[in-house]
# Entry
Amino acid sequence: MDKKTIVVKLGTSILTGGTNRIDRAHMVELVRQCAALHRQGHHIVVVTSGAQAAGREALGHPKLPATMPHKQMLAAVGQSHLLQIWQSLFGIYNLHIGQMLLTRADLEDRERFLNARDTMHTLLHHRIIPVINENDAVATAEIKVGDNDNLSARAAILADADLLILLTDQRGLFTADPRSNPDAQLIEEVQTIDDTLRKLAGDSVSGLGTGGMATKLQAADVARRAGIEVVIATGQLPEVIGRLARGERVGTRFPAIATPLESRKSWILAGPPPHGEIVIDEGAERAVQHKGSSLLPKGIVALTGQFERGEAVRIVNREGRELARGISRYASDDLQQIAGRHSDEIEACLGYGYGPVAIHRDDMVLL
Ligand SMILES: Nc1ncnc2c1ncn2[C@@H]1O[C@H](COP(=O)(O)OP(=O)(O)O)[C@@H](O)[C@H]1O
Ligand SMILES: N[C@@H](CCC(=O)OP(=O)(O)O)C(=O)O
# Structure
Protein backbone atom coordinates (compact mmCIF):
# COMPACT_ATOMS: atom_id res chain seq x y z
CA MET A 1 0.00 0.00 0.00
CA ASP A 2 1.30 3.50 -0.90
CA LYS A 3 2.11 5.75 2.04
CA LYS A 4 -0.64 8.35 2.21
CA THR A 5 -1.38 11.53 4.11
CA ILE A 6 -4.86 11.10 5.53
CA VAL A 7 -6.89 13.80 7.27
CA VAL A 8 -9.59 12.39 9.55
CA LYS A 9 -12.28 14.89 10.58
CA LEU A 10 -14.32 13.82 13.58
CA GLY A 11 -17.57 15.71 14.04
CA THR A 12 -19.23 16.44 17.38
CA SER A 13 -21.92 13.95 16.39
CA ILE A 14 -19.45 11.06 16.38
CA LEU A 15 -17.38 12.25 19.36
CA THR A 16 -20.47 12.44 21.56
CA GLY A 17 -22.41 9.54 20.05
CA GLY A 18 -25.41 11.88 20.03
CA THR A 19 -25.28 12.33 23.83
CA ASN A 20 -24.29 15.37 25.90
CA ARG A 21 -20.97 13.79 26.89
CA ILE A 22 -17.72 13.07 25.06
CA ASP A 23 -17.72 9.37 24.21
CA ARG A 24 -14.22 8.41 25.39
CA ALA A 25 -14.72 4.73 24.67
CA HIS A 26 -15.40 5.50 21.03
CA MET A 27 -12.43 7.86 20.89
CA VAL A 28 -10.21 4.98 22.06
CA GLU A 29 -11.41 3.00 19.08
CA LEU A 30 -10.82 5.85 16.60
CA VAL A 31 -7.33 6.42 18.00
CA ARG A 32 -6.55 2.71 17.67
CA GLN A 33 -7.45 2.87 13.99
CA CYS A 34 -5.34 6.00 13.42
CA ALA A 35 -2.39 4.48 15.29
CA ALA A 36 -2.55 1.32 13.16
CA LEU A 37 -2.31 3.37 9.96
CA HIS A 38 0.45 5.49 11.43
CA ARG A 39 2.39 2.30 12.22
CA GLN A 40 2.05 1.27 8.57
CA GLY A 41 3.83 4.50 7.61
CA HIS A 42 0.90 6.72 6.70
CA HIS A 43 0.75 10.31 7.92
CA ILE A 44 -2.36 11.01 10.00
CA VAL A 45 -3.89 14.43 10.72
CA VAL A 46 -6.89 14.70 13.05
CA VAL A 47 -9.41 17.54 12.79
CA THR A 48 -11.44 17.39 15.97
CA SER A 49 -14.72 19.07 16.81
CA GLY A 50 -16.25 18.73 20.24
CA ALA A 51 -14.59 21.56 22.19
CA GLN A 52 -17.91 23.18 23.03
CA ALA A 53 -19.48 19.83 23.89
CA ALA A 54 -16.50 19.03 26.15
CA GLY A 55 -16.82 22.46 27.77
CA ARG A 56 -20.49 21.93 28.51
CA GLU A 57 -19.71 18.54 30.02
CA ALA A 58 -16.81 19.87 32.12
CA LEU A 59 -18.93 22.70 33.54
CA GLY A 60 -21.83 20.39 34.35
CA HIS A 61 -24.18 21.51 31.55
CA PRO A 62 -24.91 25.04 32.80
CA LYS A 63 -27.86 26.93 31.34
CA LEU A 64 -26.22 29.61 29.17
CA PRO A 65 -27.49 32.01 26.52
CA ALA A 66 -26.51 30.89 23.00
CA THR A 67 -24.36 33.99 22.46
CA MET A 68 -20.92 34.13 20.87
CA PRO A 69 -19.04 34.95 24.13
CA HIS A 70 -20.68 31.97 25.87
CA LYS A 71 -19.82 29.63 23.01
CA GLN A 72 -16.27 30.98 23.16
CA MET A 73 -16.17 30.36 26.88
CA LEU A 74 -17.33 26.77 26.40
CA ALA A 75 -14.73 26.23 23.68
CA ALA A 76 -11.97 27.72 25.86
CA VAL A 77 -12.84 25.36 28.71
CA GLY A 78 -13.52 22.35 26.49
CA GLN A 79 -10.55 22.57 24.14
CA SER A 80 -8.05 21.83 26.88
CA HIS A 81 -10.13 18.90 28.13
CA LEU A 82 -10.50 17.60 24.59
CA LEU A 83 -6.78 17.84 23.87
CA GLN A 84 -5.94 16.16 27.12
CA ILE A 85 -8.13 13.21 26.10
CA TRP A 86 -6.52 12.98 22.65
CA GLN A 87 -3.07 13.25 24.21
CA SER A 88 -3.63 10.46 26.68
CA LEU A 89 -5.26 8.18 24.09
CA PHE A 90 -2.53 8.62 21.46
CA GLY A 91 -0.05 8.26 24.31
CA ILE A 92 -1.24 4.66 24.77
CA TYR A 93 0.42 4.01 21.40
CA ASN A 94 3.48 6.12 22.26
CA LEU A 95 2.41 8.73 19.76
CA HIS A 96 2.81 12.45 20.27
CA ILE A 97 0.22 14.96 19.15
CA GLY A 98 0.67 18.63 18.27
CA GLN A 99 -2.23 21.05 18.67
CA MET A 100 -2.91 23.55 15.89
CA LEU A 101 -5.75 26.01 16.49
CA LEU A 102 -6.55 27.84 13.28
CA THR A 103 -8.88 30.55 12.01
CA ARG A 104 -9.79 31.67 8.51
CA ALA A 105 -7.39 34.58 8.88
CA ASP A 106 -4.51 32.08 9.29
CA LEU A 107 -5.43 30.36 6.05
CA GLU A 108 -6.30 33.26 3.75
CA ASP A 109 -3.22 35.37 4.30
CA ARG A 110 -0.54 33.74 2.14
CA GLU A 111 2.29 34.30 4.60
CA ARG A 112 0.35 32.94 7.55
CA PHE A 113 -0.79 30.05 5.37
CA LEU A 114 2.83 29.20 4.59
CA ASN A 115 3.78 29.43 8.27
CA ALA A 116 0.94 27.06 9.19
CA ARG A 117 1.98 24.75 6.35
CA ASP A 118 5.57 24.70 7.60
CA THR A 119 4.37 23.77 11.09
CA MET A 120 2.11 21.05 9.72
CA HIS A 121 4.89 19.52 7.59
CA THR A 122 7.42 19.71 10.42
CA LEU A 123 5.01 17.86 12.73
CA LEU A 124 4.39 15.21 10.07
CA HIS A 125 8.09 14.90 9.30
CA HIS A 126 8.69 14.12 12.98
CA ARG A 127 5.84 11.59 12.95
CA ILE A 128 3.77 13.73 15.35
CA ILE A 129 0.01 13.72 14.82
CA PRO A 130 -1.37 17.24 14.22
CA VAL A 131 -4.69 17.67 16.05
CA ILE A 132 -6.57 20.63 14.65
CA ASN A 133 -9.61 22.65 15.64
CA GLU A 134 -10.82 26.16 14.97
CA ASN A 135 -9.50 28.67 17.49
CA ASP A 136 -13.04 29.25 18.73
CA ALA A 137 -12.03 30.96 21.97
CA VAL A 138 -10.67 34.00 20.14
CA ALA A 139 -12.13 33.83 16.63
CA THR A 140 -15.00 36.21 15.96
CA ALA A 141 -17.52 35.55 13.21
CA GLU A 142 -15.58 37.68 10.70
CA ILE A 143 -12.37 35.67 10.96
CA LYS A 144 -13.84 32.21 11.48
CA VAL A 145 -14.08 29.40 8.99
CA GLY A 146 -17.21 28.66 11.01
CA ASP A 147 -17.43 24.89 10.73
CA ASN A 148 -14.94 22.08 10.95
CA ASP A 149 -15.91 20.51 7.62
CA ASN A 150 -14.59 23.52 5.72
CA LEU A 151 -11.69 23.77 8.19
CA SER A 152 -10.75 20.16 7.47
CA ALA A 153 -10.62 20.82 3.71
CA ARG A 154 -8.16 23.67 4.39
CA ALA A 155 -6.18 21.45 6.76
CA ALA A 156 -6.02 18.79 4.05
CA ILE A 157 -4.60 21.38 1.64
CA LEU A 158 -2.05 22.49 4.27
CA ALA A 159 -0.98 18.87 4.74
CA ASP A 160 -0.86 18.11 0.98
CA ALA A 161 -3.19 15.24 1.86
CA ASP A 162 -4.21 12.39 -0.42
CA LEU A 163 -7.44 11.62 1.37
CA LEU A 164 -9.90 13.56 3.56
CA ILE A 165 -12.27 11.42 5.62
CA LEU A 166 -15.29 13.22 7.13
CA LEU A 167 -16.62 10.95 9.86
CA THR A 168 -20.13 11.70 11.04
CA ASP A 169 -23.25 9.99 12.41
CA GLN A 170 -24.69 8.99 9.00
CA ARG A 171 -23.34 6.44 6.51
CA GLY A 172 -22.71 9.24 4.01
CA LEU A 173 -24.68 11.66 1.88
CA PHE A 174 -28.25 10.48 1.28
CA THR A 175 -30.83 11.61 -1.26
CA ALA A 176 -32.54 13.37 1.71
CA ASP A 177 -31.86 13.71 5.43
CA PRO A 178 -32.35 10.12 6.69
CA ARG A 179 -33.51 11.44 10.06
CA SER A 180 -36.68 12.79 8.49
CA ASN A 181 -36.88 10.60 5.40
CA PRO A 182 -36.55 6.83 5.99
CA ASP A 183 -36.67 6.13 2.24
CA ALA A 184 -33.55 8.20 1.56
CA GLN A 185 -30.85 6.33 -0.39
CA LEU A 186 -27.09 6.48 0.16
CA ILE A 187 -25.24 8.18 -2.71
CA GLU A 188 -22.07 6.11 -3.19
CA GLU A 189 -20.13 8.37 -5.51
CA VAL A 190 -20.39 12.02 -6.51
CA GLN A 191 -18.79 13.27 -9.73
CA THR A 192 -20.36 16.72 -9.85
CA ILE A 193 -21.36 18.99 -6.99
CA ASP A 194 -24.18 21.13 -8.41
CA ASP A 195 -27.28 22.92 -7.12
CA THR A 196 -29.41 19.78 -7.38
CA LEU A 197 -27.03 17.95 -5.08
CA ARG A 198 -26.72 20.92 -2.71
CA LYS A 199 -30.51 20.91 -2.30
CA LEU A 200 -30.32 17.32 -0.95
CA ALA A 201 -27.80 18.26 1.70
CA GLY A 202 -29.52 19.72 4.72
CA ASP A 203 -28.35 21.44 7.87
CA SER A 204 -27.52 19.75 11.17
CA VAL A 205 -30.68 18.97 13.11
CA SER A 206 -29.17 17.17 16.11
CA GLY A 207 -28.27 20.42 17.86
CA LEU A 208 -24.74 19.03 18.24
CA GLY A 209 -23.06 19.54 14.89
CA THR A 210 -22.54 22.66 12.78
CA GLY A 211 -23.61 22.81 9.15
CA GLY A 212 -24.84 19.25 8.59
CA MET A 213 -24.26 17.83 5.10
CA ALA A 214 -24.28 21.28 3.50
CA THR A 215 -20.86 22.19 4.92
CA LYS A 216 -19.54 18.70 4.15
CA LEU A 217 -20.38 19.25 0.48
CA GLN A 218 -18.63 22.64 0.52
CA ALA A 219 -15.57 20.97 2.06
CA ALA A 220 -15.64 18.17 -0.50
CA ASP A 221 -15.82 20.71 -3.32
CA VAL A 222 -12.79 22.65 -2.04
CA ALA A 223 -10.66 19.58 -1.30
CA ARG A 224 -11.32 17.66 -4.52
CA ARG A 225 -10.45 20.72 -6.60
CA ALA A 226 -7.13 20.74 -4.75
CA GLY A 227 -6.53 17.15 -5.82
CA ILE A 228 -7.66 15.46 -2.62
CA GLU A 229 -10.09 12.54 -2.58
CA VAL A 230 -12.91 12.98 -0.04
CA VAL A 231 -15.16 10.43 1.66
CA ILE A 232 -18.11 11.06 4.00
CA ALA A 233 -18.74 8.00 6.17
CA THR A 234 -19.98 6.97 9.57
CA GLY A 235 -17.54 6.79 12.43
CA GLN A 236 -19.50 3.87 13.86
CA LEU A 237 -18.52 1.41 11.14
CA PRO A 238 -15.85 -1.00 12.44
CA GLU A 239 -12.37 -0.31 10.99
CA VAL A 240 -13.80 2.52 8.91
CA ILE A 241 -10.57 4.55 8.76
CA GLY A 242 -8.39 1.59 7.75
CA ARG A 243 -10.93 0.38 5.21
CA LEU A 244 -11.07 3.80 3.57
CA ALA A 245 -7.28 4.08 3.56
CA ARG A 246 -7.19 0.75 1.68
CA GLY A 247 -9.60 2.18 -0.89
CA GLU A 248 -12.64 0.14 0.14
CA ARG A 249 -15.97 1.49 -1.10
CA VAL A 250 -17.65 2.80 2.03
CA GLY A 251 -19.85 5.89 2.46
CA THR A 252 -19.99 8.63 -0.18
CA ARG A 253 -16.85 9.10 -2.25
CA PHE A 254 -15.86 12.28 -4.10
CA PRO A 255 -12.95 11.51 -6.44
CA ALA A 256 -10.31 14.24 -6.79
CA ILE A 257 -10.64 16.31 -9.96
CA ALA A 258 -7.02 17.47 -10.33
CA THR A 259 -3.67 16.39 -8.96
CA PRO A 260 -2.51 18.50 -6.00
CA LEU A 261 0.42 19.76 -8.04
CA GLU A 262 -1.75 20.77 -11.00
CA SER A 263 -4.05 22.60 -8.65
CA ARG A 264 -1.22 24.51 -6.94
CA LYS A 265 0.31 25.40 -10.27
CA SER A 266 -2.94 26.69 -11.71
CA TRP A 267 -3.26 28.87 -8.60
CA ILE A 268 0.19 30.34 -9.32
CA LEU A 269 -0.76 31.18 -12.90
CA ALA A 270 -4.30 32.36 -12.19
CA GLY A 271 -3.62 33.89 -8.79
CA PRO A 272 -2.55 37.41 -7.84
CA PRO A 273 -0.18 39.22 -10.25
CA PRO A 274 3.57 38.88 -9.50
CA HIS A 275 4.92 41.44 -7.05
CA GLY A 276 8.51 41.40 -8.19
CA GLU A 277 11.21 39.87 -10.32
CA ILE A 278 14.11 37.59 -9.46
CA VAL A 279 17.03 37.59 -11.89
CA ILE A 280 18.97 34.31 -11.90
CA ASP A 281 22.39 33.28 -13.26
CA GLU A 282 23.07 30.76 -16.05
CA GLY A 283 23.66 27.83 -13.67
CA ALA A 284 20.34 28.39 -11.92
CA GLU A 285 18.61 28.84 -15.29
CA ARG A 286 19.85 25.42 -16.43
CA ALA A 287 18.92 23.80 -13.10
CA VAL A 288 15.43 25.28 -13.05
CA GLN A 289 14.66 24.73 -16.73
CA HIS A 290 16.23 21.35 -17.41
CA LYS A 291 16.86 19.56 -14.14
CA GLY A 292 13.57 20.16 -12.33
CA SER A 293 15.45 21.89 -9.48
CA SER A 294 14.23 24.38 -6.93
CA LEU A 295 15.72 27.88 -7.03
CA LEU A 296 18.40 28.39 -4.38
CA PRO A 297 19.51 31.83 -3.14
CA LYS A 298 22.95 31.08 -4.62
CA GLY A 299 21.62 31.43 -8.16
CA ILE A 300 20.00 34.84 -7.60
CA VAL A 301 21.89 37.81 -9.03
CA ALA A 302 19.37 40.66 -8.63
CA LEU A 303 15.84 41.51 -7.48
CA THR A 304 13.26 44.12 -8.34
CA GLY A 305 10.01 44.97 -6.54
CA GLN A 306 8.88 44.51 -2.96
CA PHE A 307 7.25 41.24 -2.01
CA GLU A 308 6.41 39.31 1.10
CA ARG A 309 7.08 35.67 1.82
CA GLY A 310 4.34 33.69 0.04
CA GLU A 311 3.79 36.15 -2.80
CA ALA A 312 4.15 35.40 -6.50
CA VAL A 313 7.21 36.57 -8.42
CA ARG A 314 8.62 36.36 -11.94
CA ILE A 315 11.84 34.43 -12.45
CA VAL A 316 13.86 35.96 -15.30
CA ASN A 317 17.32 35.37 -16.81
CA ARG A 318 20.00 38.02 -17.20
CA GLU A 319 18.53 39.00 -20.60
CA GLY A 320 15.21 39.71 -18.88
CA ARG A 321 13.37 36.76 -20.45
CA GLU A 322 10.71 35.37 -18.10
CA LEU A 323 11.46 31.69 -17.43
CA ALA A 324 8.98 30.83 -14.71
CA ARG A 325 6.58 32.10 -12.06
CA GLY A 326 6.78 31.01 -8.48
CA ILE A 327 5.89 31.62 -4.86
CA SER A 328 8.79 33.01 -2.89
CA ARG A 329 9.61 31.43 0.47
CA TYR A 330 11.41 34.62 1.53
CA ALA A 331 10.41 38.29 1.46
CA SER A 332 12.33 40.52 -0.96
CA ASP A 333 14.20 42.23 1.92
CA ASP A 334 15.48 38.83 3.07
CA LEU A 335 16.37 37.73 -0.46
CA GLN A 336 18.40 40.92 -0.97
CA GLN A 337 20.60 39.79 1.91
CA ILE A 338 20.94 36.12 0.99
CA ALA A 339 21.15 36.46 -2.83
CA GLY A 340 24.31 34.78 -4.12
CA ARG A 341 24.95 33.01 -0.82
CA HIS A 342 25.02 29.34 -0.02
CA SER A 343 21.85 28.00 1.66
CA ASP A 344 23.91 26.98 4.73
CA GLU A 345 24.50 30.69 5.40
CA ILE A 346 20.82 31.75 5.47
CA GLU A 347 20.29 31.41 9.23
CA ALA A 348 23.54 33.12 10.13
CA CYS A 349 22.79 35.95 7.72
CA LEU A 350 19.13 36.59 8.65
CA GLY A 351 19.01 35.21 12.18
CA TYR A 352 16.23 32.83 11.07
CA GLY A 353 15.39 30.69 8.07
CA TYR A 354 12.49 29.13 6.21
CA GLY A 355 14.51 26.33 4.63
CA PRO A 356 17.25 26.16 1.98
CA VAL A 357 15.29 27.16 -1.14
CA ALA A 358 14.14 30.56 -2.33
CA ILE A 359 11.40 29.07 -4.52
CA HIS A 360 10.51 25.41 -4.20
CA ARG A 361 10.01 23.37 -7.33
CA ASP A 362 6.43 22.56 -6.35
CA ASP A 363 5.70 26.29 -6.07
CA MET A 364 7.04 27.07 -9.55
CA VAL A 365 5.54 26.93 -13.05
CA LEU A 366 7.89 27.02 -16.07
CA LEU A 367 6.71 29.24 -18.92
N1 LIG B 1 -28.82 14.46 2.60
C1 LIG B 1 -28.36 14.15 3.83
N2 LIG B 1 -27.72 12.97 4.04
C2 LIG B 1 -27.23 12.64 5.27
N3 LIG B 1 -27.36 13.45 6.36
C3 LIG B 1 -27.98 14.65 6.22
C4 LIG B 1 -28.52 15.05 4.95
N4 LIG B 1 -29.05 16.28 5.11
C5 LIG B 1 -28.87 16.63 6.40
N5 LIG B 1 -28.23 15.66 7.09
C6 LIG B 1 -27.90 15.74 8.51
O1 LIG B 1 -26.51 16.01 8.69
C7 LIG B 1 -26.14 15.51 9.96
C8 LIG B 1 -24.64 15.40 10.10
O2 LIG B 1 -24.06 16.69 10.21
P1 LIG B 1 -23.70 17.35 11.62
O3 LIG B 1 -24.84 17.22 12.54
O4 LIG B 1 -23.16 18.71 11.34
O5 LIG B 1 -22.58 16.34 12.14
P2 LIG B 1 -21.03 16.47 12.45
O6 LIG B 1 -20.95 16.83 13.89
O7 LIG B 1 -20.52 15.08 12.17
O8 LIG B 1 -20.43 17.49 11.54
C9 LIG B 1 -26.87 14.19 10.04
O9 LIG B 1 -27.09 13.78 11.35
C10 LIG B 1 -28.17 14.45 9.28
O10 LIG B 1 -29.27 14.69 10.12
N1 LIG C 1 -15.02 24.04 16.62
C1 LIG C 1 -16.27 23.54 17.18
C2 LIG C 1 -16.96 22.56 16.24
C3 LIG C 1 -17.52 23.18 14.98
C4 LIG C 1 -18.11 22.16 14.03
O1 LIG C 1 -18.08 22.35 12.81
O2 LIG C 1 -18.67 21.06 14.59
P1 LIG C 1 -19.07 19.73 13.76
O3 LIG C 1 -20.17 20.08 12.74
O4 LIG C 1 -19.55 18.81 14.79
O5 LIG C 1 -17.87 19.23 13.06
C5 LIG C 1 -16.00 22.82 18.51
O6 LIG C 1 -14.90 22.28 18.69
O7 LIG C 1 -16.90 22.78 19.34
Q: What stands out?
A: The CA atoms of residues 276 and 305 lie 4 Å apart. The radius of gyration is 22 Å. The mean pLDDT is 94.
